[in-house]
């Protein structure tokens, strides 16, 4: 499935122009659907400051949450790549802060994931290891692992991800599911703990049995650590996308 061409099309919606995959089944797993707008008749007042709308005070919809605001409470135009908008779009104060924080991932960490890192990979519970480059596919849907062999992990089929840091060993208390990743601050770019490895559990295509994949940083530990920190952030966004 990873070899299917990723064609794009320009789509005009009430919120603005969007560049989306021609086949919706191949959306990025980080993508969010456009929200349903609160109907005009159901919002006579700003949903933030309670100002009453009239001919002078016009109502505006936040492109991220779909709620209705006055111009003062919904004046910022901020990039929203998770909804594939071509240009920055109008967002309320709360949503614009979230979108601005996410831009760090799209501007920096996504590029790190696409560039890849080198790891010592162990598949399952075998003792056989292989040096492989792990990177995110261009459509963001797969992890590609390339060495003497090649295999792929579809992000949507990952069930848990454990980040290992220097001086730690795997254990039940260390496992980060997507839920706990939202509250975990132990891995961050420039943080005090350096990521040294990752333990994934995922279900291969056509199977309901989970497999384990272990990655440990190879020679260039700095690049590998940055890649793992970026993957940590990606897992947070994946969880948020599933929860929408």
Automatic annotation (TrEMBL):
GO terms for molecular function: zinc ion binding. SMART domains: FYVE. Residues 40-95 form the FYVE-type domain. This is Zinc finger FYVE domain-containing protein 21 isoform X1. Keywords: Metal-binding, Zinc, Zinc-finger. It holds the Pfam family ZFYVE21_C. InterPro entries: FYVE-type_Zinc_Finger, ZFYVE21_C, Znf_FYVE, Znf_FYVE-rel. Signal peptide: none annotated.
